[in-house]
Amino acid sequence: MKNTALIILLGVLFFSCLPKEKEVKINKFSEKLVVNSQVIPNNIMLVSLTRSFSILSDGYTPSSDEGGNTMTNDLMNKVLVEDAIVTVSYSNNIDTLYMLAPGMYASLTTPQYKDVEYTIHAIDKSHNLEITATEKMLSQVEFNSAEFVYEEGILNFKFSFDDPSEINYYMLNIFRKNGNGNTDPNKVDINTFLSNGNAYVGGDVFTDLNFNGTTTAAKIKLSNYVPAATQDTMIVTISNISRGYFNYLSVRNKVNNNIMSQVFNEPINYPTNVQNGLGFFSTHFPDTKVLILPVKL
């Protein structure tokens, strides 16, 4: 009898803990403009401009262990913004960006002034969307040294630079030039290299809390990198970035600086400085080095 009473009591307690059925309402999806940007030395600014989309959108397949996100050509055409009006203003000047391709806009005449605020303004008339964002151009930080070395059979990128006295945040990226074969570093067009979607190899975002105001040296292991049969041409960049952009990248848990590769990821509300939109308008000014990968012994 006692066992029966105990079983009944446990049954009552168990079912009393079950959540009650509730009607779940999904808010209507609100389409927004998504911005990503890249400053390239010699007055070049690249901006990707896309429209956000729902993971329930027709033609979109979320990523899985077997592969990455995919989308149909029809959905891709809906995401890429064509014929938008995109301007960047600074110091009482306004530059109008032209469309390189759907979703990609550029200016070849925007100078890079440190400690000056740059404001992007974009209008997508066909979808009645409009955004603006402002970011200050921080001082460029340059490599003191930069080299690739093999240590115990693993490729490492070693570098050093002088850290300014204030608190700073950094983004470091490593790319490989598409196509095999040795190339004279002095003849590589950095502007073309950064804008042609070359292969992203690795990188990091970090802050100077542990080495503020000193000359620092560090290295990044590229354990999974497989060099070509001939020497690879590599480009490395280091950028002094804002705290806001650092937080954005940290949440994304990635430092891929090829802005077009960020367009087709699953849409999530990351930290942003874009009013009425998503993404991040960054004006970081990278220092770049072109290096030839040493032969693996």
Topology, pairings included?
Layout: H1 2-17, E1 33-40, E2 44-51, E3 60-61, E4 70-71, H2 73-79, E5 85-90, E6 93-96, E7 98-101, E8 104-107, E9 117-124, E10 129-136, E11 143-151, E12 154-162, E13 169-176, H3 190-195, E14 199-207, E15 215-222, E16 233-241, H4 243-252, E17 274-275, E18 277-280, E19 287-292
Written description of the protein model:
This protein is mainly β and 297 residues long. The chain has helices at residues 2-17, 73-79, 190-195, 243-252, and strands spanning 33-40, 44-51, 60-61, 70-71, 85-90, 93-96, 98-101, 104-107, 117-124, 129-136, 143-151, 154-162, 169-176, 199-207, 215-222, 233-241, 274-275, 277-280, 287-292. It folds into two domains: 33-136, Immunoglobulin-like; 143-255 and 286-292, Immunoglobulin-like (Sandwich). Strand 1 (33-40) and strand 2 form a beta hairpin.
CATH class of the largest domain reads Mainly Beta
CATH topology of the largest domain, what is it called? Immunoglobulin-like
Task: For the record, give the distance between the C-alpha atoms at the N and C termini, rounded to a whole number.
Answer: 80 Å
Q: Helical segment tally?
A: 4
Shape: globular
Average pLDDT rating: 78
Shape-level CATH architecture of the largest domain: Sandwich
Enumerate the spans where pLDDT stays under 50 for 5 or more consecutive residues: 2-21, 57-69, 184-195, 255-261
- Proportion of strand residues: 35-45%
Give the total of beta strands. 19
Number of domains: 2
Largest sheet: 5 strands, mixed
State the helical fraction: 10-25%
Spatial order of the strands forming the largest sheet: 7-8-2-1-18
Sketch the topology as an H/E string, one letter per element: HEEEEHEEEEEEEEEHEEEHEEE
Radius of gyration: 24 Å
Structural class: mainly beta
